[in-house]
């Protein structure tokens, strides 16, 4: 289990400071879910952790990423985005194997390596209920099936850290719940950061829930839902936390529209205590 820390993170877009001197900690083996209004900087934070940011004429960023074992994070995290990003000319199975093929090139195509990796990929597709669809092209799959293929591709990487940027946002409610359950089970013991706009998803899956808010943005104190994820939907405590977070996000949105700094007011959790 790998603890991850992002320290003194800052982002400037043009003349606007999105966040400054921001610290983020991800406890090893736990799910951290992050909420926040659009444009507050959630995706930027997760891209900084993944090493996908680059300076430009309009964007400046800095921050130090460290791991609990003292080794670099590079090469030890997997990424899953909202869009499945499947290659349309590749079967479901070949899309799951894409990372292996890109890393090893011709060496990957040796018979023994090919057999071993295909077997691993088929096991994942079987666990996700897609074994019978392994040879289908993406356009022959439903949205939920495509996203399950994307989840299998993420799991195929077998990394201790998984970064997920709204991976279930485009799915219908029932498919989203199924994939939440699958992801929670199959990513157990890994360090996960999930960006979401859905408070119910956050309190259902997160060992801790963070909200990024304000201008410049900062992280509100973590909320720790009771019990272990994935939590039952009919738990009244879960529904209460969902309502609490919705009220918080609504207030933040109003303050952002009015150009006010939501960091200057008390947290709803503190006010209700």
What does this 3D model show about the protein?
This protein has 273 residues and is α/β, with parallel strands linked by helices. It has 2 domains: 189 residues, 3-Layer(aba) Sandwich (Rossmann fold), CATH 3.40.50.300; 75 residues, no CATH class. The chain is 37% helix and 21% strand. It contains 9 helices and 9 strands. The strands form 2 sheets. It has a 6-stranded mixed sheet with strand order 5-6-7-3-8-9, sandwiched between helices. Helix 4 crosses helix 5 and helix 7 crosses helix 8. The longest helix has 22 residues. The chain is globular, with a radius of gyration of 20 Å. The relative contact order is 0.16. The C terminus is likely disordered.
Q: How many β strands by DSSP?
A: 9
Order of helices and strands: EEEHEEHHHHEHEHEEHH
Class of secondary structure makeup: alpha/beta
Global mean pLDDT: 86
- What is the helix content? 25-40%
The CATH class of the largest domain: Alpha Beta
Our measurement of the CA-to-CA distance between the termini, rounded to an integer number of angstroms, reads: 33 Å
* Helix run count: 9
User: How many individual domains?
Assistant: 2
